[in-house]
Amino acid sequence: MFTLNRKKMEMVAPDAALPGRPTQIPTAERHFLSDLPIKAEVPAGYAEAMFGMGCFWGVERVFWQLPGVWLTVVGYAGGFTPNPTYEEVCTGQTGHNEVVRVIYDPARISYEDLLRVFWENHDPTQGMRQGNDLGTQYRSGIYVYDDAQRDAAEASRQTYSNRLRDAGFGPVTTEILDAPTFFFAEDYHQQYLAKNPAGYCGIGGTGVTCPIGTGVAS
């Protein structure tokens, strides 16, 4: 068991990743809560963000509750296997992270507010795990769509790293990368905790606040 867990917590080499498939796996057609198309385009004037911070069931719920967030979708990103299934991601042999794609209205909620919610709702010092969830699919990650997002993400990481250090936590392990290809997760994962309110949610914050954004999205 220890050897298996350790293997899942090490990033797979690209040439050792599972082959995947050339076509998308089936997913939901519409958002369970808003009834918007799951694969909706970003409306004019809106923006998108992508985060990995543990089990994507709980992460998606954190973001769909925020005023100004228009659509949330869960999926896989940051690895090497095209169009992976959940079972494949769980082996640790795809390299993918469980992520949430967020489409939001910048006039109502800023990217800095999203970053504050990101930092305060998980422990970004745990490496390839989040709580009892072990594996590369649970790593902390911010996946940026432009230079402005990258600058904001890197500045927030430094600010929060200092706060965590002062509170006695270890180094932040969050990766900040250009947004990779997003692969939609299966139908049953979309808005899972709205469909299953008593379902497992393995994310939790450190209790350390992050002093960025307006504070309206708490």
From TrEMBL:
Active site as annotated: 55
Keywords: Oxidoreductase
InterPro entries xref list: Met_Sox_Rdtase_MsrA_dom, Met_Sox_Rdtase_MsrA_sf, MsrA_MetSO_reductase
GO MF terms held by the record: peptide-methionine (S)-S-oxide reductase activity
Enzyme's top EC category: oxidoreductase
EC identifiers of the protein: 1.8.4.11
Catalytic reaction equation(s): [thioredoxin]-disulfide + L-methionine + H2O = L-methionine (S)-S-oxide + [thioredoxin]-dithiol; L-methionyl-[protein] + [thioredoxin]-disulfide + H2O = L-methionyl-(S)-S-oxide-[protein] + [thioredoxin]-dithiol
Entry keyword annotation includes Hydrolase: no
Domain Peptide methionine sulphoxide reductase MsrA, chain residue ranges per copy: 48-201
Similarity section: Belongs to the MsrA Met sulfoxide reductase family.
Purpose: Has an important function as a repair enzyme for proteins that have been inactivated by oxidation. Catalyzes the reversible oxidation-reduction of methionine sulfoxide in proteins to methionine.
Name of this chain's protein: Peptide methionine sulfoxide reductase MsrA
Species this chain originates from: Halodurantibacterium flavum
